[in-house]
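Subject: design request, 259 residues
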């Protein structure tokens, strides 16, 4: 049984657990700032998605297989009835776990993603990543120069640079680029329109982001009848990095209201 790589922040007296799941191209460090805030009142488990960070690579992307791997990781850690917070693809995985009743979940926080299929929107990212010859680069500055030309959004450039890792003098991405690009059409899909969950759920939208739109409200309500919404103004898709104090406060307040 394959398990995801995790980081744990234990609380000295609380029996509450919060699971944090990062988004596409990231790793568990992306939500470390949030974890520190939540650790003031709960135990926190940060998870590397399959094919990301230090988690095992898979043969192909599959929503259910990914969700089962995360679920097995939580069960193996002897964590029961957790809250789950997921950003972007991590939010989709949290929703898959809830909709398929893979384990008992106390509450969900879904950051800037909806239970819908999305059109392709990462062509420029894949193009930029494929311009990097990892066996030839000497430092991050070289990669940044390529990203500066290939990617318009500074937040995206900085985010991807964080996933460039050096191990044993060799550079590599902290994600399985070959698989994610090959199976990209699968991970932007959403094959769960006929399922619903009564788990209390908060959807947090970046005010400047297009990932959650008013046209998606019916899909959200159909899948999560107990859904609530919060908009963080002045933030885009990387809302946890752009408005960390506000984001952390909104997540903490909701989770504490569900304990």
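Subject: RE: design request

Done. Sequence follows.
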């Amino acid at each position: 049984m394959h398990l995801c790589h995790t980081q744990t922040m234990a609380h000295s007296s609380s029996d509450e657990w919060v699971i944090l799941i990062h988004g596409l191209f990231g790793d568990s460090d992306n939500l470390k700032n949030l974890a520190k805030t939540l650790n003031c009142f709960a135990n926190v488990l940060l998870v590397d998605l399959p094919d990301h960070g230090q988690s095992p690579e898979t043969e192909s992307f599959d929503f259910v297989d990914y969700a089962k791997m995360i679920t097995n990781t939580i069960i193996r850690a002897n964590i029961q009835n957790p809250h789950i917070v997921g950003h972007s693809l991590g939010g989709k995985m949290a929703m898959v776990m809830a909709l398929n009743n893979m384990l008992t979940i106390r509450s969900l926080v879904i950051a800037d993603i909806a239970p819908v299929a999305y059109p392709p929107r990462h062509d420029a990212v894949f193009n930029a990543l494929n311009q990097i010859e990892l066996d030839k680069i000497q430092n991050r500055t070289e990669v940044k120069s390529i990203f500066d030309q290939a990617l318009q959004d500074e937040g995206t450039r900085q985010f991807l640079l964080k996933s460039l890792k050096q191990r044993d003098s060799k550079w590599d991405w902290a994600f399985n680029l070959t698989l994610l690009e090959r199976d990209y059409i699968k991970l932007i899909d959403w094959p769960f329109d006929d399922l619903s969950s009564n788990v209390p759920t908060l959807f947090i939208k970046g005010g400047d982001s297009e990932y959650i739109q008013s046209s998606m409200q019916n899909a959200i309500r159909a899948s999560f009848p107990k859904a609530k919404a919060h908009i963080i103004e002045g933030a885009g898709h990387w809302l946890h990095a752009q408005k960390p104090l506000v984001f952390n406060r909104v997540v903490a307040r909701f989770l504490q209201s569900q304990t």
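The chain has a mean pLDDT of 96.
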